[in-house]
Amino acid sequence: xxxxxxxxxxxxxxxxxxxxxxxxxxxxxxxxxxxxxxxxxxxxxxxxxxxxxxxxxxxxxxxxxxxxxxxxxxxxxxxxxxxxxxxxxxxxxxxxxxxxxxxxxxxxxxxxxxxxxxxxxxxxxxxxxxxxxxxxxxxxxxxxxxxxxxxxxxxxxxxxxxxxxxxxxxxxxxxxxxxxxxxxxxxxxxxxxxxxxxxxxxxxxxxxxxxxxxxxxxxxxxxxxxxxxxxxxxxxxxxxxxxxxxxxxxxxxxxxxxxxxxxxxxxxxxxxxxxxxxxxxxxxxxxxxxxxxxxxxxxxxxxxxxxxxxxxxxxxxxxxxxxxxxxxxxxxxxxxxxxxxxxxxxxxxxxxxxxxxxxxxxxxxxxxxxxxxxxxxxxxxxxxxxxxxxxxxxxxxxxxxxxxxxxxxxxxxxxxxxxxxxxxxxxxxxxxxxxxxxxxxxxxxxxxxxxxxxxxx
Length: 457
Hints:
Layout: H1 16-26, E1 29-36, E2 47-51, E3 64-66, E4 72-74, E5 78-81, E6 87-89, E7 94-98, E8 103-107, H2 118-121, E9 129-135, E10 140-145, H3 150-156, E11 163-164, E12 167-173, E13 176-177, H4 181-194, E14 198-199, E15 201-203, E16 209-211, H5 217-226, E17 242-247, E18 258-262, H6 269-274, H7 276-283, E19 285-286, E20 294-298, E21 313-317, E22 319-320, E23 325-326, E24 332-337, E25 341-347, H8 348-359, E26 361-370, E27 376-379, E28 382-387, H9 391-399, E29 403-405, E30 408-412, E31 421-423, E32 428-431, E33 441-446, E34 451-456
Parallel strand pairs: 5-10, 17-26
Antiparallel strand pairs: 1-9, 1-12, 2-8, 3-4, 4-7, 5-6, 7-8, 9-10, 11-12, 12-13, 14-27, 15-16, 18-32, 19-20, 20-30, 21-24, 22-23, 24-25, 26-27, 26-28, 28-33, 29-32, 30-31, 33-34
């Protein structure tokens, strides 16, 4: 497979699109999403952003909250801009997720905003172009033009811009427009593979490289090689791509093993109300390997099957298994005992935000590990490129038993009030061979030969 790079667009102000990109870059945006508006995409009918929940993935750091009308809503930090860089805050802007269809719409973008583009966004007029400038911290800037505007006609000439759902996308990387993050990532992964065995390491928050000796050093070492610095934003690792390494015994067996998808803490139930220590004391069990004064809470919990050790059952509340739809905005993935005792719960609104912001575009890289002459990792040339996810796909995978809960929670020195120590580790996992159930497209790719090994839609 040869990677198709997005076209290069000048940023010297010589054209309307060039000037808009410069405005967005000055605001700190690293990409622009472009949507051609239909006649009923307006302030009255809301702006349609696509079926399912996939489109919410493209807008970072959104807190998603349930609404009493059976909906989910997210309130972004959104402002309109003009070509002079002036900002006009639109405080009532929101994204609305409709589970019953399902679909996402953009709403409230004119209310309470001074100098909003009301004439264009209230009109029934096909061919308007709406631009979203996206900043990594979640700030969003909007700009819209009529179909007669030179900016609209110029944008139409770029026919091979990357497509994300209903959007086309322009990337701004160090003010170089059109650089394709996917191609950049694949080139870096090729270099990392060719480097062979790499000493285990990690970045600290100051971008200082330190030795790494923990159990998850494979991920830290890869992130360090990619230049990914830890930060306070729960966003994809590399220009919109989540990078996940996983251990294998042979590179050729890249579909083997188990992958940890995410590790969110429960947001409801006994765990949330009483804390991890009380949770372990109530639902945990003595260490099975005989380690004294230690309580564990672990084991694979699959939907609708009681777990033998903990006695808890993983359940999807507020989800219609037959229709594969959310039927309650207060639904959750929950651990339940005796039918109604909620030990722990992860509400859909919280999981939705966590899943979508991190997993819409992901690359899974197998790795080998050795301890001599020192802890080192070697990363495979055979990777999987996964594109296009949706929270409903995740719930379906839970319902089918492909995604499961496999925690590693413990309480050490349980009887010593001074020395007791808890470890939190709530893991949602999937077998490597089942990863395709979570994405619209999975491509197995050789980064050295640039060949597709296998691809599925």
